[in-house]
Amino acid sequence: MMKSRACRILALTGLMMITPLAHSYIVEVRLDGSILPNATLSDGNNDQVITDASGTFLLEGDCVPSLRYIDENNVALRSMPGCIAREADRLLRIDLSKEITLSGTAEFPHTGDALIVFTNLDYGTNLTLGIGTANPRTHSFSEQLPAGLYRIAVPSNTYP
User: Fold this and answer.
1) Model-level pTM?
2) In angstroms, how far is the first alpha carbon of the chain from the final one?
3) Cβ(50)–Cβ(38) under 8 Å?
4) Residue 154 confidence (pLDDT)
5) Tally of CA atoms within 13 A in the half-sphere of 135 that contains its CB
C-alpha cells in the first residue's frame, strides 16, 4: 500500500510539473473515497474523458462539467460540476455518488429573469440554471444530480 501511494504521489507530481501553466489542470476522480482508474466518464455534451491508471485526466479550461459514470453493475454515478478556485491550484478532486433525479416546481413571486440554484450541501457546490421569464412564474424541473442533501433557491436580478 505504501509503495503504491508513493508511486501515485510521484505520478501526480510529474503530471503537475509537465502540465502547461495556462488553463490546464489535473482532475482526480474518486468513488467511495478511492481513485477511479481507467474509467470512461461522460459529460452533458456527450463528450467523454478517460481516467488514467492514477484516476486522473487532463482538463483544458478552468471548470469540469458534471461527469457521469456507469459502473460494472449498470449503476449511474454522477459528480457536481467543479472549478479551480485559485490559479495556483493544479489538482481538482471530483467525487462520484449515485445519480438521483430531483424534480419539482419552482415558483417565484414576480415576472422577470430568474435562476434556479441547486446547492449540494455535502460538497458545497452549486449547479445554476437559467429559467427565464416564465409567466405564470412557475418552472418545472427534473435534474439528474449526485445523491446528497440539497438546498434549492430561485434568485433573480430583476426583483429586490
Assistant:
1) 0.73
2) 56
3) yes
4) 84
5) 3
